[in-house]
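Example (one chain per record):
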Amino acid sequence: MPRTDLFLREVELAVAIAVLAMTAACSRSNVHAAGPAMPPPPLVTAVRASAQDVPRYLDEIGRNAAFESVTVTPQVSGRIVERHFQDGENLMRGQLLFVIDPRPYKAQVDSAQAALAQAKAALDLARIQFVRDQEVIGEKAISQQDYDTKKNTVDVDQAQVESAEAALETAKINLDYCYIHSPIDGRAGARLVDVGNVVQPNTTSLLSIQRLDPIYANFTVTEGDLPAVQKQMSSGMLKAAVRLPSDAENAARSGRVEFLDNAVQNGTGTVNLRATISNSDRHFWPGQFVDVKLVLSTEKGAVLIPNQATQISQRGPFVYVVKSDDTAELRSVKLGQRQGDEVVVTEGIAASERVVVAGQMLVRPGAKVRVDSGSTGAPTSNVSGKAPQNPGGQS
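Predicted structure:
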């Protein structure tokens, strides 16, 4: 190949390499000028804090007890000959339960009636004789001693009649005791004797009966809370919300607190109280543990936020507040009592401020956030100034 052609090819190759180098340099310059792509602000869910009247309460553990409880025992001895109920049956006051063999007691009634008739006959004869002697005592036909004797006979026979009447009444009562009836409305337990057993008066237990409607909830408060309890009780407004641990919080039933013990218990520093709750559906049962919320007062215009909005740091609880420019502010707060799914904020949040309830992990203080447009309404609350229907535990 001639030298001229070789030289031209070398020049063309050098130009091509230069062009490629300039193209690569321009591409790198464009990349550096554009910089890295910025991620969008995090998406969060926010709601507005609400202001409502909420109850202030004490959260206690209680135990149910029957409104009335009776252990049926016989008043006379004898053999059980009849049973007129089933174990676990709902009984009515006056319903026949057991029959003790009445024949010996019927015989005693018959004997007492005969003794009374005899005593009355003797009294009638003594009165006739005394009346006859009264007619002749003035004529000195009988001595004063005979007259006094006849008069005393009338008095003695009168006493005998009264004694016979009392014996007859006792025999009738014993006969009536052979028929054992339920003294209260209530539910029967398991029978303690069967037909054929011989029972003794006031020693043999026959049956336990408990009245379940209404029912008691017994619980305690500390002596430190006693003044507030006494104040509210003196106004006649002390109420308690009672529910089983397995019940939903909004299923609590309101009860009247009408009993406050007369002493603080030694060693525990607590005072016994008792609430009375309607129980027509037998929802509560004697001996069950229950959650009791004792309502002491109503806090007006308390600020409420959802429980999930709160977080805990080394400095205490805090929330993220979404400001008007959609930036997030970390706000330290002081929390009060929980009210169902919400909690009272005593310091740090004002009503209608937006608080983040979901997406907090991506939020940075002072950074922009995107608020879900369908999540900025006020939180739903069932709290009222009345007895709480769904309060949770204390914060």
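Caption: The chain has a mean pLDDT of 84.
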